[in-house]
């Protein structure tokens, strides 16, 4: 089996140690690839190359916005040509249904196109400042941050990479990128494309290897100016700590335990369908998943009856065959999810449907868990408090709007949330009360390249996508020009 290499300083190179790692298809448990397994030493080489590309030659950051934009558009076009291969690769590696992987690739292509346009837009400002120092022209310019370390999770392998790489490149940065070790393959294809379009040497680097070595090095290295991370809150805290050394900029997109609040006046059929999307899309391995359904007591029974009948009808199977849901990403993660299910049962939650590993038919191999609904849940239960990151949803009930809001906010996280109601004023009131970075009304999960994404509270800080996603990768410089050169303003008068 060919070994997929790291990409450092414009070359495909094996890990310095010669170590490799096997990549597994979670639908078949088969080894589908072998990748270089880098460590801190490989990361240091990549950081050195990125530093030289930025501070030494500086070729990329000095290009006009139009030239950088053209390269981003070329990347998008190359991705478009390889759309099927990219989608298939994420399905093989992560397990998700092919149509969902195709959606990810389309979003990723448009993310490059979006930032290709945005980088040419006017920005900054001119400031009308006082003339104590003489007449001044004061304005701002945006500049790239420098060497950006980027670390991603396994749930949206290609899309999470692109949410980081597209704006960072648009802004003119150098990049050292580390994908999740579980799902590195679409990142390798993306780097083949970055190599193909001819970015300057050292401008983009791919280092595969574990979080504890490669990731830790990226987070603490003094030559890295910024680290952006998407992953668990636990690891996010480690990254923030490691980044303290040189006070590098930090962006954290972390976990969630998002409330999906449903009022009795909602269109119940619609709420059921969106709740399905909210918790079972991408096997529930979604940071913004609507994993806590908080529903008005009077409609709970009717809602659960419909939701569980829809969940029980879901087909599970190999993502390539486009089932309703694929396998969980790994055996280890499946066991974590199954363990949460057992804890929920032991703590007294009522399992309405699912709740077990599924092994029928083509699922005899692979890490499949039936869509699972727990009723009679309370805020003190582990299953309500902790992020499961799988197809498991809890149900809690309320009688008043205040109670609904209180339950919704009873979490350490603040990534997302939704409200279902036909009362427009109530929708707006509840949206204002939910402490989360993304909220939906009468829908769940739609995400757009144009709008900012990120969390409150322990779901992290910083924003990706939209104009904010570009600005995260930029510094702002204030420039003051003396319009009366040679004069010293009030200094002169003293
Ligand atoms: P994870 O375990 O935190 O890992 C994420 C990445 O961090 C991986 O590349 C991992 O490397 C690396 N890593 C691990 N330990 C590290 C360390 N000490 N220093 C630096 N890097 C380290 O998360 P995951 O299990 O892959 O993904 C699931 C989590 O991601 C969930 O909590 C989910 O909510 C969150 N997520 C959030 C968003 C969002 O936008 N807010 C989006 C998607 C996912 P290895 O795996 O290679 O060791
Ligand atoms: Mg895999």
Overall shape: it is globular
Number of helices: 17
The beta-strand count equals 23
What fold name stands as the CATH topology of the largest domain?
A: Aldehyde Dehydrogenase, Chain A, domain 1
Average pLDDT, rounded to a whole number, is 97
Question: How many structural domains are formed by the residues?
Answer: 2
Report what the structure shows:
- With 494 residues, the protein is α/β, with parallel strands linked by helices.
- The chain has two domains: 3-254 and 459-479, 3-Layer(aba) Sandwich (Aldehyde Dehydrogenase, Chain A, domain 1), CATH 3.40.605; 259-441, Aldehyde Dehydrogenase, Chain A, domain 2, CATH 3.40.309.10.
- 39% of the residues lie in helices and 21% in strands.
- It has 17 helices and 23 strands.
- It has helices at residues 40-57, 59-62, 65-81, 83-94, 98-118, 157-171, 185-196, 211-220, 233-243, 268-280, 300-312, 331-346, 382-385, 401-408, 424-433, 466-471, 490-493; strands at residues 3-4, 6-8, 11-13, 20-25, 30-36, 126-127, 136-144, 147-151, 174-178, 204-206, 226-230, 249-253, 259-262, 292-296, 350-353, 372-375, 392-398, 413-414, 416-420, 438-441, 456-457, 460-461, 474-482.
- The strands form six sheets. It has a seven-stranded mixed β-sheet, sandwiched between helices. A six-stranded mixed β-sheet has the order 10-9-8-11-12-22, sandwiched between helices. It has a three-stranded mixed β-sheet with strand order 1-5-4, covered by helices on one side.
- The chain is globular and about 80 Å long.
- The N and C termini lie far apart (79 Å).
- The protein binds NADP nicotinamide-adenine-dinucleotide phosphate and magnesium ion (MG).
């Amino acid at each position: 089996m060919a070994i997929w290499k790291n990409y450092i300083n414009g070359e495909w190179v094996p890990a310095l140690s010669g170590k490799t790692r096997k990549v597994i298809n979670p639908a078949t448990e088969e080894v589908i690839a072998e990748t270089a397994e880098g460590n801190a030493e490989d990361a240091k080489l990549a950081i050195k190359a990125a530093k030289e590309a930025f501070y030494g030659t500086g070729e990329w950051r000095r290009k006009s916005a139009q030239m950088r934009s053209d390269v981003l558009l070329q990347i998008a076009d190359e991705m478009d040509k390889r759309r099927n291969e990219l989608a298939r690769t994420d399905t093989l590696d992560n397990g998700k249904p092919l149509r969902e992987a195709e959606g990810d690739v389309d979003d990723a292509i448009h993310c490059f196109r979006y930032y290709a346009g945005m980088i040419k837009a006017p920005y900054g400002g001119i400031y009308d400042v006082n003339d104590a120092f003489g007449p001044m022209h004061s304005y701002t310019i945006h500049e790239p941050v420098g060497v950006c370390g980027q670390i991603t999770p396994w749930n949206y392998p290609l899309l999470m990479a692109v949410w980081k790489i597209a704006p960072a490149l648009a802004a003119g940065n150098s990049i050292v990128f580390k994908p999740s070790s579980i799902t590195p393959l679409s990142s390798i294809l993306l780097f083949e494309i970055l190599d193909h379009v001819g970015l300057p040497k050292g401008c983009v680097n791919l280092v595969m290897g574990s979080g504890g070595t490669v990731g830790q090095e990226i987070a603490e290295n003094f030559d890295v100016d910024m680290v952006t991370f998407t992953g668990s809150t636990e690891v996010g805290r480690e990254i923030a700590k490691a980044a303290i050394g040189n006070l590098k900029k930090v962006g954290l997109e972390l976990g969630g335990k998002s409330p999906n609040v449903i009022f009795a006046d909602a269109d119940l059929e619609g709420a059921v369908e969106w709740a399905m999307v909210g918790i079972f899309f991408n096997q529930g391995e979604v940071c913004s998943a609507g994993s806590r359904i908080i529903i008005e007591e009077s409609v709970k029974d009717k809602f659960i009856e419909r939701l569980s009948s829809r969940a029980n009808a879901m087909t599970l199977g190999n993502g390539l065959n486009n089932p309703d849901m694929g396998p969980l990403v790994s055996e280890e993660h499946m066991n974590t999810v199954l363990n949460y299910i057992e804890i929920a049962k032991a703590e007294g939650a009522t399992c309405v449907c699912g709740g077990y590993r599924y092994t029928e038919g083509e699922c005899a191999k692979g890490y499949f868990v039936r869509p699972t609904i727990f009723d009679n849940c309370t805020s003190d239960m582990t299953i309500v408090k902790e992020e499961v990151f799988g197809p498991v949803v809890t149900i809690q009930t309320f009688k008043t709007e205040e109670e609904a809001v209180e339950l919704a906010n009873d979490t350490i996280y603040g990534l997302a949330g939704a409200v279902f109601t036909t009362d427009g004023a109530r929708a707006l009131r509840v949206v204002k009360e939910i402490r989360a970075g993304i909220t939906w009304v009468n829908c769940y999960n739609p995400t757009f390249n144009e709008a900012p994404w990120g969390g409150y509270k322990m779901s992290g800080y910083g924003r990706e996508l939209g104009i904010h996603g570009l600005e995260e990768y930029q510094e702002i410089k204030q420039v003051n020009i003396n319009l009366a050169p040679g004069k010293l303003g009030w200094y002169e008068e003293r």
